[in-house]
Amino acid sequence: MQTNFNALQLGDPTIARADEILRRCVHCGLCTATCPTYVLTGDERDSPRGRIYLMKQMFEGRDVTNTTVHHIDRCLSCLGCMTTCPSGVDYMHLVDLARVRIEQRGHRSTKQRLTRWFLSRVLPNPNRFKTMLALGWFAKPFRNVFAKMGMRRTAAALALVPSNALKLKILKPKSAYNPKAPMPKRVAIMLGCVQEVLAPQINHAAIRLLRRHGVDVMVVKDEGCCGALSHHLGREEEARAHARHNIDAWTAVMRERLLDGIIVTAGGCGTMLKDYGNLLSRDRGYAERAEYVSGLARDVTEFLDEIGLNPPVMWTGLKIAYHSACSLQHGQKLDELPRALLEQAGYTLTDIPEGHLCCGSAGIYNLLEPDLSGQLRDRKLKNIDSIKPDVIVTGNIGCMAQLKQGTDVPFVHTVELLDWATGGPCPPVLTKMRDAAHPIEALVEMAKATAKERALAD
What distance in Å separates the CA atoms of residue 329 and residue 79, rounded to the nearest whole number? Predict the structure, then answer.
């Protein structure tokens, strides 16, 4: 793509980076076929290629128009276009640069600014998020009233509030050590913010699984939000502050002993952590440490593959639909690895049609763009229903929260099934199944007995 930046503009590191990325685009249009918003709307401006043109015009010095803001906001950052692009266009960082520019120079309404500020303050804080879920539970019966009043975003947010919102508890796990292992690997596990409230059992399962494999697991008390939410809102300084805070927390732990990895169980957080080096590349006080932390970041399935998964101690016969989160299959290029581990653990996987398309969660996209998000959710659920699975499995809490509201099929995290197969407890949601073809009660008792035997052996 031809660009028209002058020497003065190219002296700005942001413009120079944007120019480098823009010039790689050859207008081939292969990205359009894998872009969820283009698939839905057919509007070129809702495709990666169309958005690249809009971003080019914006960076070249033209005004930040409402049209540009509208179509950039509708991008999910699913990164499916990067998987497809034959020219290696770094769309992820280009759209991040554009969001920062829009946030700095765009003309959002007061309502939009307040909404985005509110989300950046509530969701990264587990206690605030838990309080808002409790308030949302009381308001949820009136969501149709909000929708009729034109408050679509409020109605969409209330639809996501879980039915057990008043019973949710923040159960922080403790660090786990295996004193019998002579030279165990040592990792820190990132608890996350939203996941810590909605599904704390995921991190508990990960700690059990890692400890069973002879790994010391550190829970770092001072860590916080990874910064992804602020980053995708274009609030770059907030995102950098989150990153610096976490780097300081992990550095303090590593003064005692170096870590072999920083384990992440939420795909979106993992993609963000692996990009800390880029985010703080011009920060003299943190650039080197940020790059080091990025190199330590591992999705839990990556780390398990590196150390070798224990053989399964039980077989369930459950038919699994594996939903590959965009943050894993496109952001981290981890599509086949989680599937391989699940099959190695004894599960039978069935591919979901159009598995490359986003489910519509995309961080807080389902709160800011509820119409497109709802269409993508319904499309994904229709594809899942077509294969009639017993269980739906994914590696990202956002996808779980998004899709749960439209199906009765149990949802579990990948690490919960790997934990169960290798001697851990049955995931709580599966104990409620009463399918005669799959006597879950017997399998639960088998898993409990195996876990007791292993505990006695240890």
Answer: 9
